[in-house]
Amino acid sequence: MIESFIKEIDRLWKAKDQHLHLHIVGSTALMLQFDYRRATKDVDIMELHDNLTDDAKSAFKNLAGKQSQLCSKHRMYIDLVPRYLPFLPNNPLFHPWSAGDNAYEHFDIHVLDVVDVIVSKLGRFIATDRDDIAAMAEMNVIDPSRLKQRFLQALNAWSLDARANKLPEILENLHIVQRDLLLVEESVIELPRWIEE
User: Fold this and answer.
1) Is residue 168 within 8 Å of residue 196, measured between CB atoms?
2) DSSP class of residue 11?
3) pTM beyond 0.85, yes or no
4) How far apart are CA 107 and CA 139, in angstroms?
5) Cα–chain-centroid distance for residue 11?
6) Which of 112, 145, 169, 193 has its CA 20 to 30 A from that of 98?
7) What is the pLDDT of the chain when averaged over all its residues?
8) Rounded Cα distance, 21 and 13, in Å
9) Residue 166 confidence (pLDDT) above 60
C-alpha cells in the first residue's frame, strides 16, 4: 500500500531532472523495514537541509498532500516533517531502502533506524506511538542499550532550547517503555538542574 502510493508519486513526478533523497520517519519507516502493518493516513518525510528544495516541497503538497487527488485515491498523503520537530539526536540514523526490482525513477528512499523511530515516538507518546513501540518490542528489534544511548543524544539536542520543559515527561515515557515493554530496568538519567526546577 505504502509502496504503491510512493510508486504512483514517482510516476507522476513532473520535475524529471530532479532525483530526490526522501528520508522517511515514523510508523511508515517501521512498515518498510519490518513485517508490520497498521492503519496510517500519512507518509512522514523529514525535511533535511539537503533533500528538499522549496519547489520539491510545493510539488509534494500539490501532488500528494492532504487535499490532492492521490490522497483521495490512496487515502494517504505525504506529510513533510521539519527536521527539529521530532525528539531525535542531532544526527538521526537513516538506512537506504530498496523497492527491489521496482526501483523508483526519481527518488532514493531512506528509512529512519528502528531505535531512532522509537526515540522519536517518546515525545508525543500517543496511543498509536505506544502501539508501534509495543509491536517492535514484541518483534525483539529494539536494543535497550542503543535505546538509552540514542535517548541521551536526543536529550542533549533538546536540553538547551524551548522544548526542554518537555524532557521530564519524555524521560518518564522512556521508563514506561523500558519497564513495561522491554522488561529491563529503568535508566537512571539526571536531567539538567535548571529543567527540574
Assistant:
1) yes
2) H
3) yes
4) 29
5) 24
6) 145
7) 89
8) 14
9) yes
Instruction: Give the list of residues 6+ apart from residue 101 with CB closer than 8 angstroms, or none.
Output: none
C-alpha cell at 49: 537541509
Q: Are 54 and 137 in contact (CB under 8 A)?
A: no
Given a contact cutoff of 8 angstroms between Cβ atoms, the answer to whether 85 and 92 are in contact is no
Is the model's pLDDT at 108 over the cut of 90? no
CA angle in degrees (0–180, nearest 5) for 180-174-83: 140
Can you tell me the mean pLDDT for 135-143? 97
State residue 118's pLDDT score: 98
State the Cα torsion 115-121-126-130 to the nearest 10°.
Answer: 0
The rounded distance, in Å, linking the Cα atoms of 172 and 125 is 10
> Would the pLDDT of 138 be above 60?
yes
User: 1: pLDDT confidence band, cut at 50, 70 and 90?
Assistant: confident
Which residue, 13, 109, 86, 114, is CA-closest to 55? 13
Maximum distance among all alpha carbons in the chain?
A: 55
Q: Which residue has the cell 514517482?
A: 10
Residue 79 grid cell: 506529510
Angle at 84 between CA 72 and CA 165, to 5 degrees: 115
Query: What 3-state DSSP class applies to 76?
Result: coil
